[in-house]
Structures are given as C-alpha cells and as structure tokens.
Write a structure and sequence with these properties.
By secondary structure, this protein is of the alpha+beta class. It is built from 6 helices and 11 strands. The strands form 4 sheets. A 3-stranded antiparallel sheet has the order 1-3-2. A 3-stranded antiparallel sheet has the order 4-7-11. The protein starts with a helix and ends with a strand.
C-alpha cells in the first residue's frame, strides 16, 4: 500500500479504536480490544474494505505505532490516546529524570495555572525524546516544549506508564513539576 493509503486507514482506525467505535458498530472490551475479524467485517459493512494483510501493514508501518495486536493477532486495539474509559493494563514504571511535552504557546497561561491535564484523553502524553515533543507541539500552533521533572514526580508518588508505542503516560502534571524554559 502507498503511504497515503496507510495514513488514511490509520486515521479512521484511530477514530474507531480510540474515540467512536459506534461509528462502525463495534464495542471495545474494557481493555480496548476488539476482535480483528469483527473489525474487518464492520469496516466492510461501511464500505471501508481492507484485508487482514492490509491491516497488518497499517499496524506495522504506522509511524506512531498507534495500534497493537494481541499475541495471536485475533484482537487489535489502540496503544493509547483514548477518549473512552479504557484500562490498558499498563503497569507503573519509573520514568527518566526529564520528559517533554510539546504544546502551543496559546496554552501556556492555562498550563501555568492548572498544570498539564488529561482533558478528554485517558492520560497526559509525554515523550522522552525532544524531537517527538517538537513534532507533537507543531500540530497545535506556535510551539512550546515543556520539561517535566518526571523522576521527581515519581519520587513523590505520581504514577507513570510506558505505552506499547513509546509514549509516557500520567494522570496530571502539577505546575511545580514543569520547567517553562524559553
């Protein structure tokens, strides 16, 4: 498949596996999984015909590794970023000293008041790579990268999780753990 086709399928899968499974008439289990064959059937019913091999290609080639199969490839789910209540069963893990969060400058005043909030997502998303945070921030406007004192947060009892696709997750980042570096 061409990259453009993979991107198009990936965007639609993000919609149904992270936010609106009802769009195609599927139900995610409590951990976000759906039967792979059911997903393909329901996609077909909505004139979005893709084969299992094409689905595998989307999962493997998605540059953000947004999706994962179970070990037998009989189920699929989004790795993180749900606006639905999903228990991804990630175990708490100690983060690196510093993590990064890319955002737009227009959100800085709100962040200075409230910290980083998960809003309609299941977690606040953080990166251990500065370049990734920059890329994310650029999607939202004029960029600002925040430095999060993750290890200090962890030492004070905050939980961090590491998703299957390399995104660090936490419930909230209070302002006192954020460096607003110019």
């Amino acid at each position: 498949m061409k990259d453009q086709q993979i991107k198009k399928i990936s965007k639609f899968l993000s919609l149904v596996l992270r936010h609106k499974p009802e769009t195609i008439g599927i139900t995610l289990d409590e951990n976000g999984w759906v039967d792979t064959n059911e997903l393909l059937e329901k996609l077909s019913n909505k004139n979005r015909n893709i084969t299992f091999l094409q689905l595998e290609e989307v999962v493997e080639k998605n540059n953000k590794k947004r999706f994962a199969f179970n070990e037998t490839r009989t189920k699929i789910r989004a790795s993180q970023g749900h606006s639905l209540s999903i228990n991804l069963n990630y175990k708490p893990v100690e983060p690196p000293e510093i993590l990064y969060h890319g955002t737009a400058t227009r959100f800085i005043e709100s962040i200075k008041e409230q910290g980083l909030l998960k809003r309609n997502r299941d977690h606040v998303h953080l990166s251990h790579e500065l370049d990734t945070a920059i890329t994310v921030g650029k999607r939202h406007g004029k960029i600002k990268v925040l430095h999060v004192k993750a290890k200090e947060m962890f030492d004070e009892g905050y939980k961090f999780y590491f998703s299957d696709n390399g995104v660090w997750l936490t419930d909230h980042v209070p302002t006192n753990f954020i460096d607003f570096i110019k």
